[in-house]
Amino acid sequence: MTAQQTSLSGTADPRFFTRSGPFDAQALADAAGATLVQPKNAGVLPAFTGIAPLQNAGPNDVSFLDNRRYAHLLEKTQAGLIIIAPAFADKVPAHSAALVSSAPYLAWSRVARLFHPKDPAAPGIHPTAYVDATAQVDSSCEIGPFVVVGPHAEIGPRCIIGSHAVIGQGVQLAADCRIGSHVTLSHAVIGERVIILPGARIGQDGFGFAVGPQGFETVPQLGRVVLEHDVEIGANTTIDRGSVTDTVIGAGSRLDNLVQIGHNAKLGRCCIVVSQAGISGSTVLEDFVTVAAQAGLIGHIRIGAKARIGAQCGVMSDVEGGADVIGSPAMPFREFFRNVAVLRKLAKKASGPAEDGSGK
Amino acid sequence: MTAQQTSLSGTADPRFFTRSGPFDAQALADAAGATLVQPKNAGVLPAFTGIAPLQNAGPNDVSFLDNRRYAHLLEKTQAGLIIIAPAFADKVPAHSAALVSSAPYLAWSRVARLFHPKDPAAPGIHPTAYVDATAQVDSSCEIGPFVVVGPHAEIGPRCIIGSHAVIGQGVQLAADCRIGSHVTLSHAVIGERVIILPGARIGQDGFGFAVGPQGFETVPQLGRVVLEHDVEIGANTTIDRGSVTDTVIGAGSRLDNLVQIGHNAKLGRCCIVVSQAGISGSTVLEDFVTVAAQAGLIGHIRIGAKARIGAQCGVMSDVEGGADVIGSPAMPFREFFRNVAVLRKLAKKASGPAEDGSGK
Amino acid sequence: MTAQQTSLSGTADPRFFTRSGPFDAQALADAAGATLVQPKNAGVLPAFTGIAPLQNAGPNDVSFLDNRRYAHLLEKTQAGLIIIAPAFADKVPAHSAALVSSAPYLAWSRVARLFHPKDPAAPGIHPTAYVDATAQVDSSCEIGPFVVVGPHAEIGPRCIIGSHAVIGQGVQLAADCRIGSHVTLSHAVIGERVIILPGARIGQDGFGFAVGPQGFETVPQLGRVVLEHDVEIGANTTIDRGSVTDTVIGAGSRLDNLVQIGHNAKLGRCCIVVSQAGISGSTVLEDFVTVAAQAGLIGHIRIGAKARIGAQCGVMSDVEGGADVIGSPAMPFREFFRNVAVLRKLAKKASGPAEDGSGK
């Protein structure tokens, strides 16, 4: 088997994705909030049956361009309808219609969702699941195989709990949450529409211990984890519960895979934390902070609203709101890249022939 | 739902934590090994019913100050009793008693444990668990739902095995271990009082292969994992078994979440490895080594006793006992920060107006 | 319990590993593709019963030397037979025979596999497993306790599915795969002989969202994960499915533990990705690329064939085939270490007494 052999002519393999439609171009334009532009040299538009990337799309597919890196794919695409920014609209082939939008990725998102809506909960508790007699599970919930729901846990309407997930004692989930397979939830209070991908660990003991005469002594971790409305948590991510206050992930924030959040950390609204980043205990992120992949923040610091922490950045002190920092230790983007350039120049001078500029 | 709406007046939400007490101040002083100092302007001390952070504590709560960053919280706290270091004792409000200790975090740990002792094992094997007929499980153990205990595994007295955990063939656990949900244990020998948080993977194949004529060939991994007494392992951490010797985590060592330990690595006693750090195969840590978050150590090196490896450090060669290193490649702390300062200065000089010092 | 108390005289604890043999030296030489050299001062060679590291091996054990760091162990070893490179053959003790090979690690791998062959699948579906009525599971498969096999999933001959693994709806596994405990597979097409270690998450939603008027809006992730033949995936590693194309791991590639692979990434044949490294969305690795531990690659870049990305490297742009890069941002190995040396020298000059060279 090779990638070649398994590639698809379109996308959205029907083994995995159910499909709605077909839709006509104007319905798609309406869903996308985009302007429909007819093809230059074609007649009546067909009904559109699905979505596909530019290189695979056919006349009945909707495709999109969001990244100028891939603009060359426009030349050869057979896509019948292309979602595109105004700047590229004149590059659309003559046989293709366009949905022109100043937010093409958002438009794409909505069109894709129209063709492939989320499956709703299929109410019922799988016969292999173990639900404690004192737990309250709304009758509209879908509880998968081998799920454990502990004593006094509460699960709100239309939640979907994936196979083998553990909803610990007293945990509270509001409506419309989707909890992936193998997720562990303990000591946690979860808002509405929260999504947690497989294998995430939420609410276990934080890393707290004191040095005693006989070795380390564990400090009891007596706080909780609070995930506010619309939070999304990636696969195998770990969020420790607070030690004396709560660990809080603010409404609308999104954490990627393999992220670590230490005890008592507080993330504001709509923060983004990309994969393998780590936020140490008691650190505070104000609203709209972005932490890129593999960045690390020490404990007990504050990151101001809308700050952006670059990939692999090591943050050892507070960051002002709106700042862009990178490097380890963290510094402004401009300073970091200036340092890199200056060091390269100095190193060339030190090691190569200095006068003629040929030193590499 | 917002953090505001879900915050608590005290701590230790009774949905999640059982509580002992109340306790009088002298009993708490005794447990903490601290000196009780009566409040300046109050009468008889109340019985204390719980613990809480300074900002939330009331007159019947015990609180603590361990980090000078939060000393300003003393001004407004209503806590009845505050665990505190001698240096801050005079900052305790007049209405509060104090437990003065030269090790306030340790004292806090013990007071918190007094109010919230660990739940003991509730003996019994859950009816949904699958225990092989040849396994030996002590009758005092608590075996959770959907646990698998493999052939010839041995589980000592008072162990608690969380739901869905897998205790593989031949694995041996000594007394009083606590194994979290979804933990996988194979090819492992585990000491007493070992704690493993949810999702940790212990004993799987190491990353070993040779280049053969047709591609990579897997090298059989024929060692084990040995976790000595009192080891603690974080959530979703991975510890590969040895290839020809054992992978060993020394007594009392603590690993945080998402840590990677390669095959044949040996950690001494009371080592600390913080989240997302990685230790490559066959590397040796002597006793009391600290590896901070996101640090990485290459294979086949030795880290001397009491060395401290800073966050995000990249260690490519041996480190002497007692050394403090940081940076990638690793260097002494002083050298690292000197380099940072010098480069910043050189870069400013290279890019800005040099004479008047105004260059930014 | 200490490491001392639990160490073994040989290796391959029989509680965990079954053993074949004994084998005579010539049979081992044949398996290894190595040349048998008789011991200088010994008589008839014994039958060999197992393998062990040099420091523990006895006269009936086979051992090996692959790393010159450990060459001093040859002096005291009691091993009866030692697999070794020609360069060290004259260091073999007089009482030991040798298997001389120009590829000693590969030779070792084959000898170790001879003594400890992989256990074959023990056909059968565990009575606690839940297999959907529409799934197709070959009768030669071994399906462990509490496994879930979803609707229309297909599992080929001789696959072994570990306890609690989830094979999602429509997922296809070809012959001879070994899926570890607690693995989650969804939206995936898997080749032959693929090995996935415990806790890996394959096929979940990628990290894709657009900024809408009310906050982030999830972009449907409509691609798949394709793992080609002979791929191996480490414990707790996460591979997101594609958004519009597939995420592909090429034939023979090996990923270590805690690795992150973003949506639409394409890895070629025989790539190596070491633990805790991360590859962002839509990035392409050509064949035989190595990514060392904790390295991070941004999205939408291309890494040429046989390039080597160093540990903790931060790759922000394309890398040419065959290049060796390290540092963050990535640069050629030589340049990186030259920069380090030059900065150290400049920093010493700036801070210490410059004239006499004594400045440290």
From TrEMBL, chains A, B, C:
Using the record's annotation, list all stretches that form the Mannose-1-phosphate guanyltransferase C-terminal domain: 127-243
* UniProt pathway annotation: Bacterial outer membrane biogenesis; LPS lipid A biosynthesis
Boundaries of each UDP-3-O-[3-hydroxymyristoyl] glucosamine N-acyltransferase non-repeat region domain copy?
49-114
Q: What is its EC number?
A: 2.3.1.191
Which keywords does this chain's UniProt record carry? Acyltransferase, Lipid A biosynthesis, Lipid biosynthesis, Lipid metabolism, Repeat, Transferase
Q: Name one GO biological process term.
A: lipid A biosynthetic process
Q: Which reaction does it catalyse?
A: a UDP-3-O-[(3R)-3-hydroxyacyl]-alpha-D-glucosamine + a (3R)-hydroxyacyl-[ACP] = a UDP-2-N,3-O-bis[(3R)-3-hydroxyacyl]-alpha-D-glucosamine + holo-[ACP] + H(+)
Do the record's keywords include Lipid metabolism? yes
The residues responsible for catalysis, as annotated, are 263
Tell me one Pfam family matched here: GMPPB_C
Give the molecular function GO annotations.
N-acyltransferase activity; UDP-3-O-[(3R)-3-hydroxyacyl]-glucosamine N-acyltransferase activity
The enzyme's main class, written as a single word, is transferase
Alphabetical GO CC annotations of the entry are: membrane
Do you know which NCBIfam families this protein is assigned to?
lipid_A_lpxD (TIGR01853), PRK00892.1 (NF002060)
Q: How does it assemble?
A: Homotrimer.
Which HAMAP family does the record match to this protein?
LpxD
Q: What is its biological role?
A: Catalyzes the N-acylation of UDP-3-O-acylglucosamine using 3-hydroxyacyl-ACP as the acyl donor. Is involved in the biosynthesis of lipid A, a phosphorylated glycolipid that anchors the lipopolysaccharide to the outer membrane of the cell.
> Family per UniProt?
Belongs to the transferase hexapeptide repeat family. LpxD subfamily.
Please give the name of this protein.
UDP-3-O-acylglucosamine N-acyltransferase
